Amino acid sequence: MGRQPCCDKIGLKRGPWTIEEDQKLMNFILHNGIHCWRMVPKLAGLLRCGKSCRLRWINYLRPDLKRGGFTEMEENQIIQLHSRLGNRWSKIASHFPGRTDNEIKNHWNTRIKKRLKQLGVDLVTHKPIEQTEMSTSGVNNITIAEEREESMEIKSQDDQAKSDLIKTDDKKRGGKDDDEELVSMDETSDLLSNNYEMLCGTMDLGSWIKQLENNNTSSYSFSLPVDEYNNPSIGESPSLQDMDSILSWDSFNNHLVDDIFFMENSQYCNIPADSVPKYC
DNA sequence: AAGATAGCCAACCGCACGCTT
DNA sequence: TAAGCGTGCGGTTGGCTATCT
User: Fold this and answer.
1) A144, A185: one domain
2) Interatomic CA distance for residues A136 and A144, integer angstroms
């Protein structure tokens, strides 16, 4: 028997949120808090399902969200965490206050993945793809990286399954599913042994990548200037798209000064999304 | 100038998990 | 103990914008 849908979806609005909807949702949450997402749209007067409201709040409306592009330091930290945690975006996001898992996931898929590919870094093991493999006659580097990624993605699915098994076993033993335990699991697990070297060894992935970039700018063509990667948000004008979102956010916030004041004095100020009550 | 293509990101979907009854 | 339910999570999609031809 399959799960029932979270809502009947009949008569519910979908697609992009309007400023009016945002205001309704934010006003409601700031004044009433979140007790049950399913009830939120009804009580707030929104024609959305609770799930959609939750997503909108977490990814866009939350007052503690950090906006703007990722810094080089953040990017490198994401890469390091990904080598340890894999595609567990919420875990990775928990290391970045004010960033959402969706944001990090999108950034990984659109920027970092490409960057690593161009640098010849394996997207799963986070190890450099061997020079011998890269210099195979008649085959360009990108093709090799793509093939490698494809094969490793299959491997990663197996690895993830194994990892889940280990996690399950660990939970059965009453253990916690936190990063520290993942690290210790690395020591006993073949599947993560490749990452252990990166994690516990002397290798600094961030500086290594930077070094690669410096060494390879002549041999690789970047789709973006390195500077843009390095720090799109500092010392530069935001992109039009960024500006647009900032503008809309600002104009939206102008209507909510009172609410923010209320929020700053409320129990919801600076509380991470995951500490909001989970159940009704 | 106009159409094609690529990049980006907000939002949706479906499954998994954990709590309650 | 099993079923029901709400929420969290990761993968995917769709639409908007920018860039290229």
Assistant:
1) yes
2) 9
Per-residue pLDDT of A25-69, as tens digits, reads 888 888 888 878 888 888 888 888 888 888 888 888 888 888 778
A245 touches strand B (CB under 7 A): yes
- CA–CA separation, A60 and A75 (whole Å): 20
**From the Cβ of A54, is strand C under 7 Å away?**
yes
Give the tens place of pLDDT for each residue, A152-189: 443 444 444 444 433 433 333 333 344 444 443 333 33
Dihedral of CA atoms A86, A226, A232, A126 in degrees, nearest 10, equals: 10
The answer to the question of residue A195 being in a domain is yes
The reply to whether A58 and A98 lie within a common domain is no
Burial, A254: exposed, middle or buried (Cβ in 10 Å; 0-12, 13-18, 19+)?
A: exposed
The beta strand positions in A73-180, using DSSP E, are none
What's the domain range around A42?
A: 19-66+240-272
Can you list the alpha helix ranges (DSSP code H) found in A201-256?
Answer: 205-216, 226-230, 240-254
> Is A62 within 8 Å of A273 (Cβ atoms)?
yes
Q: How far apart are CA A184 and CA A220, in angstroms?
A: 37
List bases in chain C with any atom under 7 Å of a protein Cβ: 4-12, 15, 17-18
Taking the C-alpha atoms of residue A184 and residue A167, their distance in angstroms, rounded to an integer, is: 12
- What's the total number of domains in chain A? 2
Whether A105 sits with its Cβ under 7 A from any strand C atom: the answer reads yes
Place of tokens 């969706």: A102
pTM: 0.64
Q: Does residue A3 sit within a domain? A: no
Q: Answer yes or no: is A245 CB < 7 A from strand C.
A: no
Q: Residue A128: phi, psi to the nearest 5?
A: -65, 140
Strand C reaches within 7 A of the A276 CB? yes
